[in-house]
Amino acid sequence: MKRILITGALGQIGSELTVELRKRYGTDKVVASDLRPDSPTGIGDGPFEQLDCRDGKALLGLVRKYRIDTIYHLAALLSAVAEKNPQKAWDINLNGLYTVLEVAREEGCAVFTPSSIGSFGPTTVKNFTPQDSPQRPNSMYGVTKVAGELLCDYYHHRFGLDTRGVRYPGLISNQTPPGGGTTDYAVDIYYSAVKEGRYTCFLKGDTYLDMMYMPDALKAAIDIMEANPERLRHRNAFNVTAMSFCPEDQAAYIRKYIPDFEISYVVDPVRQALANSWPNSLEDYAARVEWGWEPVFDLEMMTRDMLQTLEKRKKEGIL
Hints:
The protein is built from 11 helices and 14 strands. It is α/β, with parallel strands linked by helices and 319 residues long. β1 (4-7), α1 (14-25) and β2 (30-34) form a beta-alpha-beta unit.
């Protein structure tokens, strides 16, 4: 990777990945782009362009302007938001990806595209879901993720395009607020614990889901793109995992640091149905063997780091 373009750079993953990539490869070598014209203060210095990734002409212009050789395509609607507007989710999640792949094919760029645990469905094995498992999602978000995985595979096999990606579990960040996902509770619970000492959860207390702390998510995105392509048998949609827990588990770990923390439940039927259709945990053997994937954070380490970070911000008056 020499010159990188990130789509969806102001989103949940993109805002932190932009900062990390600029640290590694140089500020001027990483171009951040997003549909929103927001001032990109959170991603530091470096080039920023407003871009609708479905606009192939504009995308091609940016790739040529900055001589891009690698695209991290992160622009997408997340699960809960996508279910509220499935037509828009199809348009952004798939037409955006198709446009990126076409420009990459024309210009010879490598492409990273994240898939998700949401690509699985209720008929998939729930525990330690294997890399190669049946995928019959019952949400529009899941449908777009499965179609995206297949599309990336097609562009690699048909055109030789260097496409790579991982299937992320729920992601937890101490920097970026949630963006409309089913696993958002696992982020909100820390903020509420620090600010209020209590949290009302929209999933049932015994709902297990696969999760990952954002530093590991960034590591996975970079490691897969730096991996030796000759070792990649799957290339796209590698299962990656770090931990699996339910809201009650998370609350118990929070009480180690905030003993009086309270959790209650008002279940959101839409997000509960999505969670019920996903695996409890993933098996990531292929990622470990093919490109040396290994997470750093478990639930205890993540909880300690999250609470320490948020407590510091609270004392500084910025939480």
